[in-house]
Amino acid sequence: MSHAVPRPEGQRLHRDGHRLRLLTFNLQVGIQTSAYHHYLTRSWQHLLPHPRRLDRLAMMSDVLRDFDLVGLQEVDGGSFRSGHVNQVEYLARKAGFPHHYQQLNRNLGRVAQHSNGLLSRLTPTHLVEHRLPGTLPGRGAIHARFGHGPDALHLFVAHLALGYRTRSRQLDYLSEIISPLNHVVVMGDLNCTPEQLHSHDRFCASLPLDPVLPPLSYPSWQPRRALDHILLSRSLAASEVRVLDQLFSDHLPIAVDITLPEVCHVALGNR
Predict the structure, then answer these.
(1) Tens of pLDDT, residue by residue, the chain (271 residues)
(2) Structurally, how many domains does the chain consist of?
(3) Which residue of 74, 108, 169, 188 has the fewest C-beta atoms within 10 A of its own C-beta?
(4) Which CATH number do you get for residue 205?
């Protein structure tokens, strides 16, 4: 469900002309992980609330407030384990985002509500939820359009499967949607390396990946793999691709600043 939240007094967009600041982050529902053994010793937090979880979310919001578009993965929609706090809504409110959207992908009722999230300082003109193919349900993508016509900006927030075959089917699915679009951002935990993305011909054809140079983001305490991505159409110029050294999760946040072409800038309603 999409919501608008009040913008705190003095809050303004971080855009400078044609520039936008993007960030993607797998939150792991606010479970701080800084060693492999934490997957075992802190696994109970996937089912039960933790008294410090809200404090960690508040610290995350301080980081997120510097961005214009934020994609979130592994956020909770307000179940028992999160203390009945909708983490997407909470982060939007604390960081001053006027628009947010939650996609519930795996609903375990009052125990857990596994979701993707989008926080935006731009007003979406259209929002679609995509249920990605797979043997087990629970993977999805949010598709937000900003502006009108062929030069609108299209943003996808995705969380793909761990398994190669299922992930390939999901990339095929996204390729079909992306192919006819001109200005596209795909961001999220894609659970694959740049080399694995390059090996998927259909996806590379729909969204040129030359080059894909994301920083290492997993595991957060000793990053060795680039699993989190912000992928761009060639029409969108990227600068300052970076990883944020924030140990809130088992993944590190990835950020990039982009410059919109003039036609896209106009399609968003800017003159």
Answers:
(1) 444 444 433 335 555 668 999 999 999 988 887 667 676 777 756 766 787 888 999 999 999 999 999 999 999 999 888 889 999 999 999 999 999 999 999 888 888 888 999 999 999 999 999 999 998 888 999 999 999 999 999 999 999 999 999 999 999 999 999 999 999 999 999 999 999 999 999 999 999 876 667 899 999 999 999 999 999 999 999 987 899 988 889 999 999 999 999 999 899 987 5
(2) 1
(3) 108
(4) 3.60.10.10
Length of the chain: 271
In three-state form (DSSP H/G/I as H, E/B as E, the rest C), the secondary structure along the chain is CEEECCCCCCCCCCCECCEEEEEEEECHHHCCCCCCCHHHHCHHHHCCCCCCHHHHHHHHHHHHCCCCEEEEEEEEECCHHHCCCEHHHHHHHHHCCCEEEEEEEEECCCCCEEEEEEEECCCCCEEEEEECCCCCCCCEEEEEEECCCCCCEEEEEEECCCCHHHHHHHHHHHHHHHCCCCEEEEEEECCCCHHHHHCCHHHHHHCCCCCCCCCCCECCCCCCECCEEEEECCCCEEEEEEECCCCCCCCCCEEEEEECCHHHHHHCCCC
For residue 19, the enclosing domain spans 2-267
CA-wise closest residue to 185 among 223, 250, 226, 241: 241
Six-digit token string for 81: 């384990």
Q: How many whole angstroms separate alpha carbon 112 and alpha carbon 142?
A: 20
Estimate the crossing angle of helix 87-95 against helix 53-64, to 10 degrees.
Answer: 50
Return the structure tokens found at 48.
Answer: 């039960």
